[in-house]
């Protein structure tokens, strides 16, 4: 039988055990030179929360002192001064205060998470419209998003909102005239109290602009050209952010007449947002077609339909 592999394995095992034993005992003492005799001497280290105020000799032990406020030591040591407590960085807050035997612990402040690649706290990502929050962000992890499943939607950018259920038109005794998607709700109509097709389109216009990303400069020009907008509200348009522009659009939509809503696709096309303008016009056409079908108006033209709804 070959004993060499067994002996080798036993030697490695004993070496590891000896190393572990020494690593536990070693931090409690350190080698120094006796200031009285000039000979080597083993001195006690100072425990965490203290520092070495006076070295040992052959006739006296190490003298340790407590760390003053604002400083600490976490390990057995023989340093002549405690370490200064750390300071939390940008976008961080104190998770645990500094004590004599431990430094302060920091974490990202609310709304931020620690990004290892950049070694800094970064703002939680917002889930775009059409997606809901699957897992909220924490100081250690970014927001996790998921596409809204069938029958649900999200019409905003958010760090905490989940997808919402489409409203049921039939439960309210109404007719579905425009089916909801991942980014907007169902649009319902009361056939007894019909409105202009553009009035139903109004319900999804704010979500439309949020979902269909239009460049900032172009969106500013579009807002400036909204039909019959109060000239006083146009001041400072070219300094507005995305969120401010979307708020301005929502405010305009809430007071716009059906005729002004009908002019909106043309405005988009003139402002070189042809794709968005054509999409919006197509949605208006589909709403009017469904109004005619669901409310049994027969095969009337758009002009006749608008007259009937007037």
TrEMBL record:
Residues 1-18 form the signal peptide. The keyword Membrane does not apply. Pfam families: Death_3, TNFR_c6. One of its GO terms (biological process) is apoptotic process. Residues 66-106 form the TNFR-Cys domain. SMART domains: Ephrin_rec_like, TNFR. Keywords: Apoptosis, Disulfide bond, Glycoprotein, Repeat, Secreted, Signal. Gene3D superfamilies: Tumor Necrosis Factor Receptor, subunit A, domain 2. TNFR-Cys repeats lie at residues 66-106. It is found in: Secreted. It comes from the Eukaryota. Disulfide bonds join 67-82, 85-98, 88-106. PROSITE patterns: TNFR_NGFR_2. One of its GO terms (cellular component) is extracellular region. The keyword Metal-binding does not apply. This is TNFR-Cys domain-containing protein. It comes from Crenichthys baileyi (White River springfish).
